[in-house]
Amino acid sequence: MNLNAPHVLAGDTNVAIDLAQESEWVLDALSTIRRRLPDASLLIPPTVAEELAWLADEGDEAAERQAAQKFLRQHRNWGFQLLHTVPLGSFYVARIAERLLQTTLLPAAETNDAYILAESAALSCAVLLTISKQLRVSPVAKRHCLRVFAGAPGDHFGFGDFDLLRLQAGAFVGAVAKRLAL
After folding, report:
1. What share of the chain is helix, strand, coil (3-state, %, to 5)?
2. Is residue 159's pLDDT more than 60?
3. pLDDT higher than threshold 80 for residue 146
4. Domain extent at residue 41
5. What is the residue-averaged pLDDT of the chain?
């Protein structure tokens, strides 16, 4: 894992599944990212890795199970790195995820999305690759929650339904450190 890379990007579960199913929009988006950011690191945060492992074994549909299994087998070929921990540690990620849910930036049922967002920021990811509508947080809401994310009307841009949600990790870590100081 190269957290010192010029650009660090995280992938959500839906992107991994769609990539394994050879969805054209994901292939096009990743091609564009690789062309424009050739030195970027593509990371799979711990919660996404856990979701993929669960889907590989317990997914409701055979196609989803097969896609999760395929991604877990071939993620390196596609340039992704699976992570099992984050530098801040699981305690801080849990506190940040709880804060995201308490401020109702994400629906209460979207606990995993809160963890994915917190882990991505803790990993200094500049971009979270997702199609999750729950992770489309408004710029005002982003500023409200621990001043975690840089918010502006053009803060995220998409390839169709594919969002590139820009995270501002430096501000995130500083705000977390201030708020969580014991």
Report:
1. 50, 15, 35
2. no
3. no
4. 8-177
5. 75
Does the residue 70 lie in any domain? yes
- E strand or H helix at 95: helix 90-102
- Left, alpha or beta for 160 (phi > 0: left; psi -120 to 50: alpha)? left
What are the Cα distances from residue 91, in Å, to 2, 87, 117, 180?
23, 11, 15, 10
Token couple for 133: 């509508």
Split into its structural domains, the chain has a count of 1
Instruction: Look at residue 93 and tell me if it is in a domain.
Output: yes
Q: What are the pLDDT digits (tens) for 59-102?
A: 999 999 999 999 999 999 999 999 999 887 888 888 888 888 88
Length of the chain: 182
13 domain residue, yes or no: yes
At 82, which CATH number? 3.40.50.1010
Rounded to whole angstroms, the Cα distance separating 151 from 115 reads: 20
